[in-house]
Specification:
Strand content: 15-25%
Strand order of the largest sheet: 3-4-5-8-9-10-11-12
Structural class: alpha/beta
Number of strands: 14
CATH architecture: Alpha-Beta Barrel
Number of helices: 11
CATH superfamily: Aldolase class I
Number of domains: 1
Radius of gyration: 19 Å
Helix content: 25-40%
Largest sheet: 8 strands, parallel, barrel
Distance between the termini: 15 Å
Shape: globular
Order of helices and strands: EEEHEHEEEHEHHHEHEHEHEHHEE
Length: 357
Amino acid sequence: MLFSPFRMRGLTLANRIVVSPMCQYSAVNGIAGDWHIVHLGGLGLSGAGLLMLEATAVSVEGRITPGCLGLWSDEHAAALSRVLSIVRRYSPIAIGIQLSHAGRKASSRSPADGGGPLPREEGAWQAIGPDVIPFADRPPPKMMDRSDMDRIVTAFVKAAISADRVGFDLIELHGAHGYLIGSFLSPLANQRHDRYGGSLANRMRFPLEIFEAVRAVWPAEKPLGMRINGSDWAARGITIEEAAEFAIALRERGCDFVDLSSGGNQRANIPATPGYQVPFAAHVRKMAGIPTIAVGLIRDPHHAEQALVNGQADLIAIARGFLAEPRWPWRAARELGGAVHIPPQWARAASRAIQRA
């Protein structure tokens, strides 16, 4: 099943393996460079069915760090077009982009620089969020007003239009990990007293406004989904039941899949064991009737296969596991008897046990 095709709208994935978005903190003013060609080029030859670009900011203040990728100008689009054209020259893999706004977690140092808030002397900027509640040691964000919301919706729309022109096959909106969309959904970050805070219906109002605006400009034949939290792993945080309700609302508005992750709205002890987030994908798939992506320490091909066979998810996403084992689908194909795309340059060196797709 892991090596069976999967269709969403006009896009057919060769298999159910997804290279999950991984921030590289290597852009210059949001512009993709040679590192992105090397990084994504290698992953494009992995044999996976879908390659997702890292969280890509829709506006300059929407970056997590100064090194985060962006898509808010023609220059950004041209750089990404160059990356895609090179990857596609050698690989048939479907390529998606994760559009994001970091919200109250913006203006941070990269993990390689120690993380934490970006100092003023290093170019810190004012973060925004649903409330003035800061994340961990970050400065308080500016509480968004209606004009801020309109500006952000417009930024997502413009980025989606650019993503289509660049040639991306799919968009995933980042609604998890405590970034802007996810922070509106979580009571830990959103304690507003207007129509955008309080009840789940209110907390998901702005995220749905963003989704609807993007769906309106994103081509009907191209899939559009969202990564969401199944849990905040904290008292009074978002619950899996709320995640399912939100997924139903997304499905009713033309959402094609949800990618179930967790955490990020508050420091928490997360029980990160193999497949620890698979139950979130299973619950939402069952309750919302929408395709789901399972992600989180899924390293064993048989584990991935079983999650699909058991109806817990439709796709399996792997991130850091691909950095440790860039040809993970080759191993999975050997163990499960599947077929993967192998570049002709590597075909002679590939194990005879792997079928070429």
